[in-house]
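re: the backbone from monday

yeah here it is again, tokenized this time
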């Protein structure tokens, strides 16, 4: 039932008119400055115009959704801490006391914690409870979730994006919190790309060299046991994924449905974006890359998405912190886009592309 609903939603998304990208690009070309002088920021403004399907793009009202869930694979010793930390950080998100909350205040962005599968219930009205089940199973021993549960989590992400868009948000950002989710993200990416896990797996939140080798071994054995079909994104997600990745994938698809740009955060968010792109190619039209993660496969997954990051700062914190670094830079880009005089205004000959 959930899969039928998901396919129907994806099938109903209309193509994006690229002329809005072109119009924004032409505006940049008229401004009295070196052509392409702001680099990727100029391209991002054009992408926002295309995503919003307007010649007057805006990012005045912005929201960050932090998808929180637990991963059964933690039982196999792949992380430095146990699953109880997920709930602790989720509660702190509600209180506004995490890294991303501090950064979001500076970036003028509203933060929405979302429970899509934390092991325990969070008794706080500030967290949106959209969980289908309390945590996934260890994919070393069984499928992480059922296909129906996987589709349900994707739909919850679509629903949450739609709800935020109805509240008038111009741009959305993705974040996640869940101990063990660099393991699930590496497993999903390895399956989708048909690459060996050792080429795509990093230390996450601070594993030792020995811990990394164990993490890689767990992923390799899990993939061997589960045998996910790389040509079936839902099969990969339900066998070795996490509810946060599923929900974020849906969030990108929801942005495409609502014509609202969605910022990709770090490695885990980018893997979710790749899942969204494979499920719904049109969703790529609303994606912006914030930064390139310091995780081993950070550059790899952005290349698969065809996205260029603005920030390269060796960040690997998660929660949406990369997205928060991008927003003030986009504000400055928009100040130039709307406020800079043109070559005609200052009566000098325009630069010409050579």
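seq for it, each position gets an aa:
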């Amino acid at each position: 039932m959930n899969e039928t609903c998901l396919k129907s939603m994806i099938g109903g998304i209309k193509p994006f008119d690229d002329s809005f990208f072109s119009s924004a690009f032409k505006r940049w070309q008229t401004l009295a400055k070196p052509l392409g002088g702001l680099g990727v920021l100029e391209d991002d403004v054009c992408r926002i115009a295309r995503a919003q399907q307007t010649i007057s793009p805006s990012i005045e009202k912005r929201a960050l959704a932090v998808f929180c869930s637990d991963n059964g694979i933690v039982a196999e010793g792949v992380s430095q801490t146990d699953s109880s930390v997920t709930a602790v950080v989720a509660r702190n998100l509600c209180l506004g006391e995490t890294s991303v909350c501090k950064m979001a205040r500076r970036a003028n962005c509203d933060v929405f914690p979302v429970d899509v599968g934390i092991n325990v219930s969070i008794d706080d009205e500030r967290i949106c409870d959209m969980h289908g089940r309390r945590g996934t199973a260890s994919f070393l021993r069984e499928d992480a979730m059922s296909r129906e549960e996987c589709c349900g989590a994707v739909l919850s992400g679509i629903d949450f994006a739609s709800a935020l868009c109805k509240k008038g948000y111009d741009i959305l950002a993705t974040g996640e919190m869940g101990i063990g989710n660099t393991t699930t993200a590496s497993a999903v990416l390895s399956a989708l790309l048909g690459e060996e896990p050792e080429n795509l797996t990093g230390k996450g939140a601070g594993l030792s060299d020995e811990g990394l080798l164990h993490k890689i071994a767990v992923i390799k054995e899990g993939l061997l046991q589960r045998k996910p079909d790389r040509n079936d994104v839902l099969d990969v997600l339900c066998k070795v994924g996490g509810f946060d990745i599923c929900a974020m994938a849906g969030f990108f698809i929801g942005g495409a449905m609502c014509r609202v740009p969605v910022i990709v955060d770090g490695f885990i968010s980018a893997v979710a974006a790749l899942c969204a792109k494979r499920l719904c190619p049109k969703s790529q039209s609303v994606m912006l890359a914030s930064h390139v993660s310091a995780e081993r496969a950070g550059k790899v997954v952005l290349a698969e998405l065809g996205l260029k990051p603005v920030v390269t700062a060796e960040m690997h914190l998660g929660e949406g912190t990369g997205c928060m670094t991008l927003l003030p830079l986009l504000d400055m880009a928009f100040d130039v886009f709307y406020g800079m005089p043109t070559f005609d205004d200052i009566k000098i000959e325009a630069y010409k592309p050579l």
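The longest helix spans residues 147-166. The longest strand covers residues 109-117.
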